[in-house]
Write a structure and sequence with these properties.
heterodimer; A: five-stranded mixed sheet; two-stranded antiparallel ribbon; 45% helix; B: 183 residues; mainly alpha; elongated
Chain lengths: 350, 183
């Protein structure tokens, strides 16, 4: 009866927990294989992705700044500025000390975008000036539906501005050259010019909801198991009352236990201590429990980290290539520990 | 009668304990909590950063940008009731106590939008670039104000004094709620 009650309680608690956690599990996307871009809306060509990736490699190396481009279909019920804020801080864009990241987020299905600077960059490249760049380089092409051109022009413009801000001696053309070298080194064709790209794009995990649900499901199952185990242990403890036994009975029990143990492997026999004081009770008739060695922990990369791809190390639990990106990534990357406190620029007058 | 059995002495001791508990532990504890929140309001959660990132800093920045907007707007529409209102509210946001700032900030947000609409109606969008920069910077500061950690801490403090026994101690010691600036 108590088992059933405990189980019912556990189920109710788990259901309540699920309901409470559901809003909290509305998540932003995780970083893709190559950290600096994520094209879930499938609007960027591989050449543009390569340009973004290799330009960022140079910029990151020079001054720690990172300009991340993310395209998604929709932010759902969440406002785009909140979504961008959560994503930026989850991915930890930019250098930790300088806080010089920049996020370019395009929600294609929502016909909206948001550009968010890191805390340190914002003081040098404020929302007002970002807005000017948005008006000149992003909005015209975005409004006409040419998202690839919108991202390319805007990225190149802000890249130049950020490099100039931090006196990083890097240019877009250097990034493009690095990409071309990569392609030439990894291309299956002998000549670069004649090759036709047919692959898809590296995509991050779109199913944040399913990922979050899996975690929640695991938590619920764990709670149920724990409660059932505890309830069973309680009922067993109540059922078994350990009487005081005489020496003869204790000896018989010990012999029986020894016979049982003989059929098992690698278990030492349980030795009942001799009775030394009146009223002594043997504390256990079963085999002693042997301490279990602790399970080795597997270290997982922290949120925002993404390695993998063709040349990078490590792996991200949430990103994968789908549909066959031509190279399967350019070499991985990860956030530098940066953050933002808001203060970005969205579409329209804000 | 022994001293410890004296009823009058016992009552006095009890009253003393209640007072010490209320004003000492309770009141001072609440005051300490309030002080922590106000420290975050003033200096932010990372006071070691080169640039101040706190509610106080953001409000100052917003007020400064609002004043810039007024200066730019007067080039296009002259001195009007709208520009004067924004200027007055910006001055209050820049330099006053928390409660006055809160009220002024609440009014300033609407007033700035009104000023933007007035300038937009009066001019070509290509012409008022500097005004637009200041407006976007103002909105940037507004966004940071709304997302600041101060709001969560202030809400926690308000929750503390909104329930028993914190509410009782707060009433007795005269500590009121802390305003959150739209966060």
């Amino acid at each position: 009866m108590n088992n059933r009650k405990a189980l019912r309680l556990a189920i109710c608690f788990a259901a309540a927990l699920a309901l409470m956690c559901a809003p909290a599990l509305a998540k932003v996307v995780s970083a893709g294989t190559d950290f600096f871009y994520l094209d879930n809306a499938n609007v960027m060509s591989e050449a543009l992705e390569g340009e973004i990736y290799f330009c960022n490699q140079l910029l990151d190396k020079a001054c720690g700044a990172q300009i991340v481009v993310v395209t998604i279909d929709t932010t759902g019920t969440e406002a785009i500025d909140d979504y961008a804020y959560d994503l930026f801080n989850k991915w930890r864009i930019g250098d930790q000390k300088q806080q010089n990241g920049l996020l370019i987020l395009l929600a294609i299905g929502d016909d909206n975008y948001y550009v968010l600077p890191g805390t340190g960059l914002e003081s040098r490249f404020s929302a007002g000036y970002i807005g000017e760049y948005v008006d000149e380089y992003l909005e015209p092409n975005f409004a006409s539906g040419d998202y690839e051109a919108a991202v390319k022009k805007f990225f190149e413009a802000v890249f130049a501005r950020v490099a100039d801000t931090y006196d990083a001696n890097v240019t877009v053309s250097q990034g493009v050259d690095a990409y071309k070298k990569f392609v030439a080194a990894n291309s299956e064709s002998d000549s670069f010019g004649g090759y036709e790209w047919t692959g898809g794009h590296a995509r991050g995990d779109e199913s944040e909801e399913s990922g979050g649900s899996a975690m929640l499901g695991f938590v619920i199952v764990l709670i149920i198991i724990l409660v059932v185990v505890m309830a069973k242990r309680n009922s067993r403890r109540r059922a078994v009352r350990r009487p005081i036994v005489s020496d003869d009975t204790a000896t018989m029990i010990m012999a029986d236990q020894l016979l049982r143990n003989a059929s098992r492997t690698a278990r030492p026999p349980h030795i009942i201590p001799t009775r030394t004081a009146p009223g002594y009770r043997p504390f256990s008739f079963g085999a002693p429990s042997t301490p279990r060695s602790s399970r080795p922990t597997v270290s997982r990369p922290s949120s925002g980290f993404s390695g993998g791809g063709l040349f990078g190390g490590g792996s991200s639990s949430s990103s994968r290539s789908s549909g066959g990106s031509h190279f399967g990534g350019f070499g991985g990357g990860h956030g530098g520990g940066g953050g933002t406190r808001g203060g970005g620029v969205g579409r329209g007058r804000h | 009668m022994r001293f410890s059995e004296n009823r009058k002495v016992a009552f006095v001791a009890l009253a003393l304990c209640v007072v010490i508990s209320l004003f000492g532990f309770g009141g001072m504890g609440l005051a300490r909590e309030r002080g922590k929140v106000l420290k975050v309001y003033d200096r932010g959660t990372e006071p070691d950063l080169d640039i101040r990132h706190s509610m106080d800093a953001y409000l100052d920045a917003a007020a400064e940008k609002a004043q810039e907007m007024v200066s730019e707007a007067e080039l296009y529409i002259g001195k009007t009731q709208t520009t004067q209102k924004v200027a007055d509210l910006a001055a209050l946001v820049a330099d006053s106590d928390l409660d006055t700032r809160y009220q002024a900030w609440t009014d300033l947000k609407g007033a700035v939008d009104g000023l933007y609409n007035a300038v937009q109606r009066a001019t070509d969008s290509d012409q008022f670039a500097q005004f637009k920069i200041a407006y976007r910077d103002f909105n940037g500061a507004k966004d940071k104000i709304e997302k600041d950690e101060y709001h969560r801490l202030a809400a926690d403090y308000n929750g503390l004094i909104g329930s028993f026994p914190g509410g009782l101690v707060a009433t007795v010691t005269g500590q009121g709620t802390l305003n959150t600036f739209g966060g």
